[in-house]
Amino acid sequence: MNYFKKIMRFALPYQRFGVLSIICNIFYALFSTLSFLALIPVIEILFDKTKRVSEVPVWEGWSNVKDYAVNTFYYNVSERVASDEIGALIYICIIVVILFFLKNLFGYLANFFLTFLRNGVMKDVRDNIYNKLLELPISYFSEKKKGDTISRITADVNEVQNSFLSVLELIIREPLTIIFTIIAMILLSPKLTIFVFVFLPISGFVISRIGKSLKRRSTAAQEENGNFLSIVEETLSNLKIIKGFNAEKRMKTKFEDSTGRLRSILNNLVNRQNLASPTSEFLGIFVIVVILWFGGQMVLVEESMGAATFIAFLGLSYQILTPAKQISKASYSLKKGDAAAARILEIMEMESTIKDAPDAIDVGAFTNGVVVKNVSFKYEQDTVLKNFSIQVPKGKTIALVGQSGSGKSTIANLVTRFYDVNEGSISVDGVDIKKITKSSLRNLMGLVTQDAILFNDSIRENIIVGKEDATETEIIEALKVANAWEFVKDLPQGLDTNIGDSGNKLSGGQKQRLSIARAVLKNPPIMILDEATSALDTESERLVQQALENMMKNRTSIVIAHRLSTIQNADNIIVMQKGEIVEQGKHQELLEIKGAYHKLVAMQSFE
């Protein structure tokens, strides 16, 4: 229950709905009990004339309030029976109907208010998880399966939602119903009520024995649910590879293995959960039978209890069964909900390793340059950069080249502070980026990656990500700079054309030019280009390269390049091997040295 208690804090903004639900549940439990107690005078007065009251009851103080209330009711019914038996019968039936109506009305209202509380809490939980996902560093997601994360914000939250409803019924409606019922039963017959108490501890013991492993099994089910969602996500993202390599059978086997494991876990889990209801019902009926035997003797042999009272007592005894069964079901649901809450809270309580320092400042302008000084960095155990230093003066273009795995893209990740350096420092205008707020730091930068990352939305919505208040004229100008307007203007709906999932309705070159237009519209002083042309054909590369050159005019640029033809005009080319600088200089200077850069150019000339 510890995890579930933490989730419950989200109920505070909606506590007024909780209070209203509690009030309605009190009335529900009260009228639920009264509806059975009303049967006693009905049976006694109609079928036993000796029970009729002919004298008006006299108020004798609060100590005799029970007798006064009962005698007043008996007197009113007796008077009606004496004058009109059919009318009295109708009167009594109306009272019973009203009591049951009020019971169900307050039951509905309790659920009505509870719905606002429950759905409000789940909205806030989902919002909190999503906000945390946006806050967490990129390194967190490189270690987690996407499907598992999706499962936590969907299936696990739904599980908590169902459990949340159950626990509120568990701690409010059902216990109150049981309490009011037991009070009424004690008033009717303390001796006979003792037998009812046999049911509750036995039921609780048996059900707790059945449900001990529920939380563990529920956690396993939720983890496997995340696993098969990951397989689905990978399948949808990589359909071309799966089909191209005839890997359908392999993926099918992998998916069916996961769903098979999930089926086995759920079979065991649900069967144990389903055992709660028949177990509690059987135990309840067993107690009812004992009450029939023992109470029957009190009515027929000892004559210490009236028949009508005994019938009402039986009804009250059976009424305990329903809330008792609901409590047993809710206890199972709580086990599952607690497991789901643990998985949700694992994300919500995850500390971000990339966060603003308490004294972090906002920077609004870029005046001097970027300095990377003696930086070392490693992903887990693999060292990627060793004592790396470069200077990027304002208005200059610095190119990073080298073989795959030499650490080029890592520089982009560190400058944008997607990761923090292990050693050394990176500064902007002489201020360490750890002392600059992440928001203002990234406002200075535009990013164009190798894979054009686009959203399943219109061209307009994709372009304005970095500048939401952009005018249509500004958007079109950005598209023109990126050489994208030539194809956008010919689309059926122009800027409002939906480009599909990840922009898959467009070609690779078109997608990349849109991502450049997005960076152009943001108009940042520092531009970071991470192999922006490496995945393109020659014609698309020419158009994109021209767009990049247009964009980099009068800007500070860090260009990570695979195709060396794209960075020949850079102010400084830095050649990297295994996280270290081996050469640096202008294009022609490096060719004359005939070192590592010369070899890279020679190899590409044969491509």
From TrEMBL:
Gene Ontology MF terms in the entry: ABC-type oligopeptide transporter activity; ATP binding; ATP hydrolysis activity
Membrane topology type = Multi-pass membrane protein
Sorted alphabetically, the keyword list is: ATP-binding, Membrane, Nucleotide-binding, Transmembrane, Transmembrane helix
Q: What CDD domains would the database entry show? A: ABC_6TM_MsbA_like (cd18552)
Please report the stretch or stretches of sequence annotated as the ABC transporter domain.
370-603
Question: Domain ABC transmembrane type-1, which positions?
Answer: 19-336
Subcellular localization, as worded in the UniProt entry: Cell membrane
* Claim: Plastid is one of the keywords in the record: no
The portions of this protein that span the membrane are: 20-43, 88-114, 170-188, 194-211, 282-300
Q: Please give the GO cellular component terms listed in this UniProt entry.
A: plasma membrane
List the Pfam families. ABC_membrane, ABC_tran
Against InterPro entries, the record matches this protein to: AAA+_ATPase, ABC1_TM_dom, ABC1_TM_sf, ABC_transporter-like_ATP-bd, ABC_transporter-like_CS, P-loop_NTPase, Type_1_exporter
**Keyword ATP-binding in record:** yes
Q: What is this protein called?
A: ABC transporter ATP-binding protein
